[in-house]
Design goal:
Length: about 260
């Protein structure tokens, strides 16, 4: 379907933790050499399967991992060996999706990949319902760091994820998932305007930067259908999610990608 519309595709497999203590995949680490070898053997089987899927489907890009911070900094050589095995299976472009906070700067195997992948949930403001200018200003220190890092490795930066909830505080901690909030909290912070402002600021500050290769937006549901007949409160409960679909941010996205296409 994507190819029929001239859309390039990236396959980006995730390891997903459902830990009751709220642990994150960036914390995955082993306690012994034997356990590390077992982990990488399992991960190799996992990712080479998807490398073959991407090759067979003629996908343009494969993301070899997502936010596996400790495995990357503690086992650099294992990742380098794995990348060579992936290259033997998959002929397209490669990236890795590193968290915006420290991880992308601490990884040292970027020279083996085509793009520096960043999960771009940078904090952009300390205000609820921020102005456009406030958010644009908030991008500046992050862009300076990204430009310097791109020059260091002579590789373009690719936002493997970027997106915002439709909440009044979504620019403060963009990575925070709305599902952890109560129904009352969700209803009280609903804001399409703030989400649209954050999208507008991101496109204005990021889209034309020569060292930024592109942006993958989180999150888009292929079968999304907003409850048109639902009450306002019901819509607010469901619609603070990251998706721009059916919201003001969707039009911002359409406007900018239309400009880019022209």
């Amino acid at each position: 379907l994507a190819k029929s519309y001239g859309i390039n595709t990236i396959l980006k497999p995730h390891i997903w933790l459902r830990d009751k203590e709220g642990k994150w995949r960036g914390e995955i680490a082993m306690k012994s050499e034997e356990d590390w070898q077992k982990w990488f053997a399992d991960y190799e089987e996992f990712i080479l399967h998807y490398a073959q899927v991407a090759e067979d489907a003629n996908m343009e890009m494969l993301c070899i991992g997502t936010e596996l911070h400790k495995t990357c900094v503690e086992r650099e050589q294992d990742w380098r060996a794995l990348i060579k095995k992936i290259r033997a299976v998959y002929s397209g472009q490669l990236t890795y999706a590193a968290n915006f906070s420290k991880e992308f700067e601490e990884i040292t195997f970027w020279d083996e990949l085509d793009y520096i992948g960043v999960q771009a949930y940078f904090p952009l403001t300390d205000q609820e319902n921020p102005t456009l200018e406030n958010v644009r200003k908030g991008w500046q220190p992050h862009l300076e760091k990204l430009e310097a890092f791109s020059k260091k490795y002579q590789k373009p930066i690719l936002f493997t994820e970027a997106g915002y909830k439709s909440t009044s505080n979504s620019g403060i901690e963009p990575w925070e998932w709305p599902q952890r909030l109560s129904k009352e909290e969700r209803e009280s912070i609903f804001s399409e305007d703030t989400q649209a402002t954050l999208y507008e600021a991101m496109f204005r500050e990021v889209f034309d930067q020569p060292y930024i290769a592109g942006i993958h937006l989180w999150k888009w549901y292929p079968n999304y259908a907003p409850a048109q007949n639902a009450s306002a409160n019901q819509r607010r409960f469901y619609d603070i999610d990251f998706t721009p679909q059916g919201k003001k941010a969707e039009q911002v996205m359409i406007d900018w990608f239309t400009k880019f296409d022209q």
